[in-house]
Write a structure and sequence with these properties.
single chain; alpha+beta; Jelly Rolls; 2 domains
Length: 144
């Protein structure tokens, strides 16, 4: 009987030793909020890549104007096929952005055409690399 209780207690300790995905994400969100508060960059949104080929949209819709954007990829590798920015006036622009990201990497800073612009939304087309897990894409903007 004691061995069963001991085995149960040890297995409970092992199961709790590593933080789960939600705890890891909460910690990541707190880190992002601290970076956002200390830097000129604003976190505009994030999306999880669910499968081999995925499409997502981040609605920005803030009143602020941005000069540059950058992307941060976390948790897995990712291939970005296309990105389209739709500005406040309805104009769409796609920078030349077929990129492969490793886990924990950041894109170059992408200058927006015409100086500081209002961003209505950003549309992505991307996919996980073979053998990868779920990747998270963060969109950051540098204000004027």
């Amino acid at each position: 009987m004691r061995s069963i209780i001991l085995l149960f207690a040890l297995s409970a300790c092992v199961a709790r030793s590593a933080p789960g995905p939600r705890a890891t994400e909460r910690r990541d969100d707190r880190r992002d909020a601290r970076f956002d508060a200390r830097s000129p960059w604003d976190k505009l949104g994030e999306r999880w890549v669910q499968g081999a080929i995925d499409r997502d949209t981040i609605v920005v819709g803030r009143g602020e104007r941005y000069q540059r954007i950058k992307l941060v990829v976390e948790h897995s590798d990712l291939e970005l096929y296309d990105i389209t920015l739709v500005f406040g006036n309805g104009e769409a622009w796609s920078p030349n952005t077929r990129m492969v990201f490793g886990q924990g990497t950041t894109s170059r800073e992408i200058d927006l055409p015409g100086g500081a612009r209002h961003i209505a939304r950003v549309e992505f087309r991307y996919g996980n690399l073979p053998g990868g897990g779920r990747a998270q894409v963060e969109l950051w903007g540098l204000g004027s």
